[in-house]
Design goal:
151 residues, alpha+beta, 7-stranded mixed sheet, 3-stranded antiparallel sheet, 3 helices, elongated
């Protein structure tokens, strides 16, 4: 028990300091420094997020030691998503899907809805079936229209 106490104290201190450090620099959210994000509109109700990031050096050992659940939760929080289905998550890249409802305007025309992020994303790419758009330094994404052919 005495050996566990210093670990718990260090964890508590790191997680208390992490929210204060959030948004000090572009792309920073807690102990995660987002570098780029690619969102693929894979169907009308799902989007796949591919996120490249760095985890702070002083926290990466704790993530490896205690597991990646907190890292997964923070990644979902960055994009203000209620639930994420993770395909892979590592110390510098994650891939996950989330339900996002696209609006149907008829004749194969759809609208991918606006999103507000918890930090400024340095490089954001939105990929749809027929196009790809890239945005630099965005914290709010206004949405995008695209064409989708139902197979």
């Amino acid at each position: 028990m005495k050996k566990l106490l210093p670990v718990v104290v260090i964890l508590f201190a790191v997680f208390l300091v992490s929210p204060v450090m959030a948004n000090e620099t572009m792309g920073r959210y807690s102990y995660i420094q987002v570098e780029s994000v690619a969102i693929d509109v894979i169907d009308l109700d799902k989007a796949t997020f591919n996120v490249t990031y760095q985890v702070d050096d002083n926290v990466d050992f704790l993530v490896l030691l205690l597991g990646k659940n907190d890292l997964k939760q923070k990644l979902c929080e960055i994009f203000d998503l209620d639930s994420c289905s993770f395909e892979s998550v590592g110390m510098n890249h994650a891939s996950f899907a989330s339900d996002i409802h696209s609006y149907n305007y008829g004749e194969g025309t759809y609208w991918f809805p606006e999103m507000t992020f918890k930090t400024e994303i340095p490089n954001l790419t939105i990929k749809a079936q027929d196009s790809s758009k890239t945005f630099d330094s965005v914290q709010e994404f206004p949405g995008i229209g695209y064409f989708y052919e139902v197979p």
